[in-house]
Design a protein that fits this description.
Blueprint: E1 7-11, H1 15-26, E2 30-34, E3 48-50, H2 57-66, E4 69-72, H3 79-85, H4 95-101, H5 104-113, E5 121-124, H6 127-132, E6 140-144, E7 154-157, H7 160-169, E8 175-179, E9 185-193, E10 199-201, E11 205-210, E12 213-219, H8 224-240, E13 245-254, E14 257-264, H9 274-277, H10 282-291, E15 303-310, H11 328-331, E16 336-340, E17 351-359, H12 362-375, H13 381-389
Parallel strand pairs: 1-2, 1-4, 2-3
Antiparallel strand pairs: 5-8, 6-7, 6-8, 9-10, 9-11, 9-13, 11-12, 12-15, 13-14, 15-17, 16-17
Helix pairs in contact: 1-10, 3-4, 12-13
Catalytic activity: 5-amino-1-(5-phospho-beta-D-ribosyl)imidazole + hydrogencarbonate + ATP = 5-carboxyamino-1-(5-phospho-D-ribosyl)imidazole + ADP + phosphate + 2 H(+)
GO molecular function, one term: 5-(carboxyamino)imidazole ribonucleotide synthase activity
Subunit structure: Homodimer.
């Protein structure tokens, strides 16, 4: 075990990293964050912030010399940096697992190799691949293999001509062409796995998206059979990769079938509810798995609804200048927990924070979240009403 007051290293300084730093501090650890942004949310509260590129040799040397173990906050950290650090200290998750999750082609090939359920797809590496793709893949979604997130780097294509045009717009970057499924629901499972193979799953969340960005997550998921099936698949994935750390797996529900959408080798936005509704949060689990500590208890003590707060909220009804929302409306709700990420500039589509409403039952938590969402004018009425109807 790596015990406090050891120093831990984190590659990535966004809001997920900020929560990791807080969890590590609560357990008595020090944290060094590597992130090129001098105003990164995690870097601002870390014991030390290295404002340098993720492959900067001096910064990596410093982390190798001062840290007892290394983790990552997002999947697009160069796998080579993780592999280099792993030569001298524990890195969890490892470079191989991160490299699978950071490339859609590698990820889907891994899933297909083990016969795990995924939507029909084809790799697109040149224009000829579009012409050779199965006609049944249309209408489909063309997604860049790397660096796409929150709806970025993907577009719906109804035919080959649209797919070719999109491939050109993406600069001929490797892509996957995935059949567009008629989704009924989207689920996610966040789990932690330690170096001995022990796994702890958090309750599956049902997720609603807006413009490709997660908008609302709620637990418990009303369909226990679906949640259990998703958890089994997520555990199998972690075991197949010999994964150590926190892993998030997203799923599509189509009829009575569940398909794996994608994996994230880190805590996940849909797991933010664990900060307030569980005995152990996903971020404390990340620290525990990294340091070889016994994993914590992931059980819920409350139903929860998590709502993202995007930068759009700062601009109200088409206002040109950003204004701080009236947080009194949220803070007046006794069973609501507000989390702001400390980002200096609000921009439309940027995740600035979230709030979680707790309750003894999911229906009452959704009802409260709906009322709060309406009061601050964040445009969530329709989507939360959908959640309430479930």
């Amino acid at each position: 075990m790596i015990l406090p007051p050891a120093t831990l290293g984190l590659l990535g300084g966004g809001q997920l990293g900020r929560f990791f730093v807080s969890a590590a501090h609560e357990l008595g650890y020090r944290v060094v964050v590597l992130d090129p942004d001098p105003d990164s949310p995690a870097g601002r509260i870390a014991d030390q912030h290295l404002a340098a590129a993720y492959d900067d040799p001096a910064a990596l040397d410093h982390m190798a010399a001062t840290c007892a173990a290394i983790s990552t906050e997002f999947e697009n950290v160069p796998a080579g940096s993780l592999a280099w650090l792993a030569r001298s200290l524990p890195v969890r998750p490892g470079a191989e697992a991160v490299s699978i999750c950071q490339n859609r082609c590698a990820e889907k090939a891994f899933l297909r190799r083990f016969g795990l359920p995924l939507a029909p797809y084809a790799e697109i590496r040149c224009a000829e691949d579009v012409q050779l793709a199965d006609a049944d893949l249309f209408p489909g979604i063309l997604k860049v293999a790397r660096f796409g997130y929150d709806g970025k780097g993907q577009v719906v294509v109804d035919n080959r001509a649209q797919a070719r045009e999109a491939f050109v717009r993406f600069g001929f970057e490797p892509c996957v062409l995935e059949k567009k499924l008629e989704l009924e629901r989207e689920l996610s499972v966040v789990l932690a796995r330690d170096e001995n193979g022990e796994v702890r799953c958090f309750a599956a969340a049902e997720n609603l998206h807006r413009r490709g960005i997660l908008d609302v997550s709620f637990v418990p998921h009303a369909r226990a059979g679906e949640a259990a099936a998703a958890e089994r698949l997520a555990v199998e994935l972690a075991q197949r990769m010999d994964y150590v750390g926190v892993l998030a797996v997203e799923f599509f529900v189509v009829g009575k079938r569940i398909y794996i959408n994608e994996m994230a080798p880190r805590p996940h936005n849909s797991g933010h509810y664990t900060l307030d509704a569980c005995a152990t949060s996903q971020f404390e689990q990340q620290v525990r798995a990294l340091c070889g500590l016994p994993l914590g208890d992931p059980r819920r003590h409350s139903a929860a609804v998590m709502v993202n707060l995007l930068g759009d909220l700062w601009y109200g009804d088409g206002e040109e200048a950003a204004r701080e929302p009236d947080w009194r409306k949220l803070l007046a709700v006794p069973n609501l927990k507000l989390h702001l990420y400390g980002k200096p500039d609000a921009r439309p589509g940027r995740k600035m924070g979230h709030f979680t409403v707790l309750g003894s039952e999911a229906a009452t938590a959704v009802e409260t979240a709906l009322a709060v969402h309406q009061s601050i004018g964040s445009g969530g009425e329709t989507r939360l009403a959908r959640a309430e109807s479930r």
